[in-house]
Amino acid sequence: MSTQPPLVAILSGAGISTDSGIPDYRGPNGLWRRDPEAEKLVTYEFYMGDPDIRRRSWQMRRKNRTLAAQPNDAHRAVAELEKAGVPVRVITQNVDGLHQLAGMPDRKVLELHGTARKFVCTQCHARGPMEDALARVEAGEDDPACLVCGGILKSATVMFGERLDPVVLGEAVAITKNCQVFFAVGSSLQVQPAAGLAGLAADNGARLVIVNAEATPYDDQAAELVREPIGTALPRLLGELVP
Ligand code: ZN
Predict the structure, then answer these.
(1) Rounded to the nearest whole angstrom, what is the distance from the C-alpha of residue 25 to the centroid of ligand 1?
(2) CATH class of 1-22+71-113+161-243
(3) pTM exceeding the 0.90 threshold for the entire prediction
(4) Less Cβ crowding at N or C end of the chain, within 10 Å?
(5) 23-64+117-157 has which CATH code?
(6) How far apart are CA 96 and CA 114, in angstroms?
């Protein structure tokens, strides 16, 4: 008789990337929410309606160090678990792409809020590497237009005022319902619908483990609460699951 290793789902939030030098931008207490002018730069309505907002957004992206950040021990621990043969799926609220840089296959990472590593055309939906768009900004185009259709380009992240991709969200829900263990890591679990996945996992019989410095609204449903730093806690917890 063979036993299937349990499906492990990992929901990651800003806290998993702080050791990589990336601050919390979009959380309830994140940098953008505390600065109304900065929040405009990442709000769809303002971005589409105001060329000046777009010019400032491109300058912000140019200076943003997210693309230069490197994965840390927590990202590596997730990728190592997957390499050890355990079925792992990552559902992330982050746009930094660090799970994939650590070695997680792209198809096993669901990016609920998109990715800062690509640009997308708001008209024809053409996509490309963010470096290509930033190179045009460096070369003097302050609001580079789509090379295919002339439309407005933006980062391939979900801005405030935009819907989450229903396909990505649907896959996240399916994984959440089917997993045996659900880790919520570095997320305040206050932003829906991502936060609700923690409750959904517990309701469907998964063992919910919350790894976060602060209390979350789902602590009551957790089988285990871990308050220690993610960079040491996650490698230890996931190491215990390696067969
Ligand atoms: Zn286009």
Answers:
(1) 27
(2) alpha beta
(3) yes
(4) N
(5) 3.30.1600.10
(6) 9
